[in-house]
Amino acid sequence: MAPPPTSVLHASLTLPPPTITHASGHYLHPSPGPPILDASGGAAVSCIGHSHPRIHTAISAQLDSCEYAFAPHFSTPAYERLASFLCSSTNGAMKKVFVTGSGAEAVEAAVKMARQYFVEKGEGGTRTRFIARQRSYHGNTLGALDVSGHAARRAIYEPLLSGKTSHVSPCYPYREKRVAETDEAYVDRLAQELDDEFHRVGADTVCAVILETMAGLTLGAVAPLQGYLAKMKEVCERHGALFVLDEVFAGMGRTGYLHAWQAEGVTPDLMTVAKGLGGGYVPIGALMVSPKVVEVLGRGSGAFVHFQTYHGHPVACAAAYEVQQVIKDEGLVENCRVMGEYLGERLRARLGGHPNVGDIRGRGLAWALELVKDKTTKEPFPVAQKVAPTIHAAGLQKFEIAVLPGGGVVDGVNGDLIVLAPAYNVTREDVDLIVQRTAKAIEHVLGGAP
Ligand code: PLP
């Protein structure tokens, strides 16, 4: 059947994706076609499921009171309430919040804030560089892409990127921890690499180090090893740079902690959140700023030199606040922890023996399967084989499940990924169905059914 005509600039100019006419609970309803089990919440976004009535009510109430006020000139109770909730959720580690329209905008704001921090300190002339990690993803706007280490997403824009960011190895034990190396020795090696990078580029030229607390969609749900974040922060502080954690993927409950750094007890100077903040009900992200940074701005210009027309949007803030209250009232951070363990168990039981499932990893309700051609050598499939995208398509077309395909970006670098990031309110029955359908889609493409 010929695809319907469309004026939308989709990723493919000729093959538009299925149209979703409505969504409820954990299901997307396409037209035509049967309901699709949403096993990845889009891209780890829909954290309380679709069509939650409380969010509908909160949005209507906000529309009735004030749909928009220009945030550089006016505040609103909705913006104040969300910011105050976010700060108090960090136990004082964060003091101010700047609400944006997306994750990438939050990262852009973090990059600009880090830069301004050093300008205010009188080091603006020298501290212009960033250090981030290879294969990281911080967003698709040019500033956020500039700090991202995702080679394929950067490639065609390279001349437009500033070249002021360099990248060190991620914490990626499955591929990069040496045989017989202890976790501690591996973490020390990564901290040493960061330290070497500071010296290579000039330690006093670095403005900030930016990391995903838990590497999400591009590396595939890799939680930091014990002690890793603390050691990276220690190196960063020794050289006077800011330590920035990007929690756009991992934050707001997904890992079984409201903020993923809370599992490690390592606080950032700046942090970003998005996805689970608004749960997909509204486009929203946020930059959160520590007292240390606020104090320097306070002693200096007394202002943050950045704004956008829609920042602090009251409807987005009201919706996100209510999403967070649902998470609290329904005990969903705890459910992420409990259901996350169950999901890991079920994935290992069902797919651990599959000849092409090289690694099964995750924390909370963020899990990934790394698929390889050869499990012993960890040789990835060639990128051209499009293994993960083919499994994604099979899931949609034959097994009524939406999973997130990833990885397989550059031949030989890593394997294809299937990322699962369901809503925080899944039950054991939902998890069983997710595992069953995911396994069927994988076996349909790669064989190896039990
Ligand atoms: N940072 C991380 C860690 C992400 O995973 C993403 C998106 O996947 C972003 C930033 C960008 O967020 P957005 O797509 O909302 O701009």
UniProtKB/TrEMBL annotation:
GO molecular function list: pyridoxal phosphate binding; transaminase activity
Keyword Transcription regulation (UniProt): no
Matches recorded under InterPro entries: Aminotrans_3, Aminotrans_3_PPA_site, PyrdxlP-dep_Trfase, PyrdxlP-dep_Trfase_major, PyrdxlP-dep_Trfase_small
Pfam families for the chain: Aminotran_3
One Gene Ontology cellular component: cytosol
Names of the cofactor(s): pyridoxal 5'-phosphate
Superkingdom as given in the UniProt entry: Eukaryota
Family membership noted in the UniProt record: Belongs to the class-III pyridoxal-phosphate-dependent aminotransferase family.
Name the record gives this protein: Class III aminotransferas-like protein
Protein's organism: Bimuria novae-zelandiae CBS 107.79
